[in-house]
Amino acid sequence: xxxxxxxxxxxxxxxxxxxxxxxxxxxxxxxxxxxxxxxxxxxxxxxxxxxxxxxxxxxxxxxxxxxxxxxxxxxxxxxxxxxxxxxxxxxxxxxxxxxxxxxxxxxxxxxxxxxxxxxxxxxxxxxxxxxxxxxxxxxxxxxxxxxxxxxxxxxxxxxxxxxxxxxxxxxxxxxxxxxxxxxxxxxxxxxxxxxxxxxxxxxxxxxxxxxxxxxxxxxxxxxxxxxxxxxxxxxxxxxxxxxxxxxxxxxxxxxxxxxxxxxxxxxxxxxxxxxxxxxxxxxxxxxxxxxxxxxxxxxxxxxxxxxxxxx
Length: 311
Description:
The protein is mostly helical. Among the domains are: 105 residues, no CATH class; 112 residues, no CATH class. It is 77% helix and 0% strand.
């Protein structure tokens, strides 16, 4: 329209064009009014529908905005809760560790009393396990506990001297108890022979079938897998029964003593002590045997003299 009016050279042409345009506008307005009258219901429905859609979109935007704000708030709260839960979890682990340490301290305080009971009943393996475990705990996790310093020194001292007791027990079973069995057998044979009226020569000591530690070791080393007379015994298989007499089986008892010395890491000292005391112990065996043979001979001589048999 502007281009048409601007290109017109004459005012009349412009007026004519203007009149034509105005008429066209009026005709368009009339047509539009007629269409509005004809389609008023549809137009009203369309406007209301559009207005409803616009409102819903606006509400949806507001709700989405609120949901985003709520999500951000939840995320922040979850971070706070996570930190709080992590803190509570760490505190729970710390409290559990403290309770375990307190239980361990309570058990360690009872170790000296239990140790005396085990030593009195000669359950040395249990006593050694208890002592080594207590000392390791006192010098490990409980090292910083100042209230246990006296107990730590006491148990450490007992651990340092424990192997001496085990070595003495080992020597007693190696040299004294094993030879006592020979003497007891000889006494029994002597009593039986003294009951017989006709005097017979003193029976010789039969030590060939005696189960000494050396014979046990040799037999266990050279026995066949199917042999039922002597089974190879490993230190790992030896266990201590708290209800039985520990000295009932001398060989097993010596195995328990060696296992206890191994737990104390005193095997080199044990070997050295056995080597140092070997000659002295063997002399003591000879001395005891000599005394025993002399006593038996004297008693038999007394019995024969009473029967008027100088022989």
